[in-house]
Design goal:
The protein has 19 helices and 21 strands. With about 500 residues, the chain is of the alpha/beta class. It folds into three domains: about 5-215, Rossmann fold, CATH 3.40.50; about 225-330, 2-Layer Sandwich (Transcription Regulator spoIIAA), CATH 3.30.750.210; about 335-470, Transcription Regulator spoIIAA, CATH 3.30.750.200. Strands 3-2-4-5-6-7 form a six-stranded mixed beta sheet. A four-stranded parallel beta sheet has the order 17-18-19-20.
Amino acid sequence: MISRRLISRWRELKEEEKREVSPSSGGSFYILLVFPNTYSVGISNLGFQILFSLLNRIPDVVCDLLYYPDEDVIPQIESGQELCSFYLERTPREFDAVFFSVSFENDLVNLIRLLRWMRIDPLTNRRDDGDPVVIGGGIVPTANPEPFAPFFDAVYLGEAEPHLPEVVEILLDSPSKRDFLEKVSLMPFVYVPSLVDVEENGGFLVPKGVEKRRTFWREFSEFPSTSVILSKHSSFGSAFIVEVSRGCPRRCSFCLSSYVCRPVRFASAEAIFKIVEKSGEKKIGFLGTSVSDHKHLPEVLERFAGKREFTFSSLRIDADIRFLEVLKYSGLKTATFGIEAATFELRKRIGKPIPDELIFERVRWLSGHFETLKLYFMVGLPGETEEDIEAFGRFISKIADLFEGKIAVSLSPFVPKPFTPFEREAFDGYPILKTKIKRILKLLRPVKKVHVSYDLPKWSQLQAMISRGDRRVGLYLAGEDRKLDQKRYLGPLKGSLLPWHFISVV
């Protein structure tokens, strides 16, 4: 029996949506596209919407969605009631294939739970031809598919637009799961873990005898992605989203997107103008890893001043002043910037050498134009000293003196990521991070108009393990390996090869 509470929740959310795409009709091959996090997180993910639209354009394919259920639904699922897809309300076992889109490392835990709730064995080696094919993709498994290797029949490496339809066509034409996997394993951007042996190297299980590369959408500049589903539950509210950039020219040493989403591409001015003109939505959101580096966005803001409201993903505080000057036309009430560290010396070390004086100058200019200033910082960065922690008090106090409105400070523990210059750096660890965060909170307590939030170090530690893990990490999270040496994945990494080094992201 399907969970009645889940069906009720899905129907409430569907009624509130505004959609350009729904599951296609008339097809005979059913794909369940899964985002292993809650609806509000999944609907905020433009890549997930792109996949939904792309898959429903493939002839004979019907694609539906599934999100991780809300907390109040889980007890019903745990008691034996079934999940159902979002739009068609079919049970997962009624689908021919299951595609997971993974954007966050810790969602691997949710992914394993979802497979069990779908009544699909999480481990690929315990499934048979009667089970749906399970394929994974997204930035996290693209960067390091090995923690996901026990669960995915195949991993698509890179951006979906150029080649995912080809993979689906092979799936449609294959008489068996084995035949499909053997065919797609020959594609340079599809990784089939079950067909690859692993060997010990420097304490890690590393794939041997295989070379893969990430694929990317060459036509992005002329065909940027946009929302196909609008919902007030999105982190952008009901804004119509336009993806204006992929990749980032700044190359901060900690940033996964800077190194895995190459090459840097910007949507053309003409394409953005056409999209905004065509859209009937009042509120437009610009999304990208390098939004404020887009040299033509000021022209867009000026052209549509007073006609549209604009919102943005996080911006660079050292962006061209012309960009910041036209923000006043956006209708934006909160300005969001990643600062990362409270001292210039540490910012320089991590590849973000923005002088204090420039930050203070920009904050002074922003004051009066925005109600809230939101600043992101990292804790536990490589080379961080006690002086860098103590500097938070002086640095934020100075910003509070310069900005008239509210200030929100967000702290995130540094997590080393594959392919970045910091991929081999140590993770600080739960006890050290807890002490550092506690110290920063104490330093900022006297600054009354500053609100501080932070990510829990224990979840960041799990993220670090998954980020740089091998197959043993996945098996550990599935309860199949209870003797995992966690320190192996959290300390400084040694060895000539790491689990993800068989992939080229260039």
